Amino acid sequence: MHTLSIVIVNWNSKDHLDHCLLSIAATASELNPEIIVVDGGSFDGCAELLAEKHTHVRFIQSKENIGFGRSNNLGINAATGDIVALLNPDTELKPDALQGLIKALERLPNTGAVGPRLLNSNGTLQASCVQAFPTPLNQALDSYFLRKAFPRSGLWKTYDAFHQNNPSKVEVLSGACIVAWRETLNSIGGFTEDYFMYAEDMDLCKKIHELNQVIYHVPESEIIHLGGGSSSTQFNNFAVVMNLESLEIYMRLRHGQKKALLFRFLMGVSAAVRFGLIKLVLLLKRSRSSPSLLRWQAQLSWARGKETWTSQYQFQTTQIHQQTVV
How far is CA 144 from CA 77, 128, 156, 257, 318, in A? Predict the structure, then answer.
């Protein structure tokens, strides 16, 4: 019987972490998992929480915020199980979720990793649980309306996963929950540490595919993903710009500098078009602004080289520090 390690990276998500650990105890205790929590430099009190309520959990404290991928690598390197489940702290397991994922990993041929169906808190599908590998074109065209109008498009590659009950081969799983062989993770060197946050799950899946191993989405395994628990305090421009920067790193590492430049150009064009359309709608409604308008404005500014994640991170850190002092 294969042994299981669960790695959870915490960053300002102590309350979510508590619920996540309780859900593991309620649904997967018979698996006797080794649970490793890595705090990525948030010092939010999760150490005290674990010492008081979850004494069986191994805890690793990073002295600084080293990012999602590097924090996960600390946990992966410490894991001893044959199988490693990478979980976000803002996830809650439904009954038999981990059991189903482990069964699929063991039984499906040439499998490197598997992932569950992620649900929003209201029980609806969280479509980000499966994605296609990012390209300049599918990122520039990505929108709710186009996905709705052309659900079978090869740009998205999600239709089969969301319309059948059996495991299906996919390209990318959400980093909110990935279950993989520890040997596979070791073979690819874990997460690529060029990323601070965002897109590292896409890169991880790309490296698994490059081993000629298959990745499956397992719909019978369901996990609630509350979403944004770790980054809710750093939304607005920071989240938008950081995601764009990370995708550009992916393009450069996996496809070369020309594709990275094309990505920046097309994201600028996409942002300019959407910004103009929203501006027109707001004008007709006699409204001044909207969150969508601010998002596309930030993306356009990034594409023109006027925004970087470093400046946004420094801004957010200053804001958080000021709020703490006050």
Answer: 38, 12, 11, 29, 34
Q: 220 with 170, same domain? A: yes
Element (H, E) at 98: helix 97-107
What are the strands, taking DSSP E only, across the chain? 4-10, 34-39, 58-61, 83-87, 91-93, 111-119, 130-131, 168-169, 172-173, 177-181, 214-225
Amino acid identity for residue 89 in this structure: P
The boundaries of the domain holding residue 206 are: 4-225
Angstrom distance (rounded) from CA 86 to CA 18: 16
* Same domain assignment for residues 136 and 271: no
Lowest mean pLDDT among 14-28, 124-138, 307-321: 307-321
Pick from 226, 225, 231, 113: which is nearest to 172 by CA? 113
Q: What is the pLDDT of residues 234-253, one digit of tens each?
A: 446 888 999 999 999 999 99
CATH number for the domain spanning 81: value is 3.90.550.10
Longest dimension (CA), the chain: 64
pTM above 0.70, yes or no: yes
Cα–Cα distances (Å) from 214 to 22, 256, 264, in that order, read 31, 24, 30
- Under a CB-based contact definition with an 8 Å cutoff, are residues 138 and 125 in contact? no
Final residue of a structural domain among 225, 251, 270 = 225
SS (H, E, C) 154-217: CCCCCHHHHCCCCCEECCEECCCEEEEEHHHHHHCCCCCCCCCCCCHHHHHHHHHHHCCCEEEE
- The average pLDDT across 33-60 equals 96
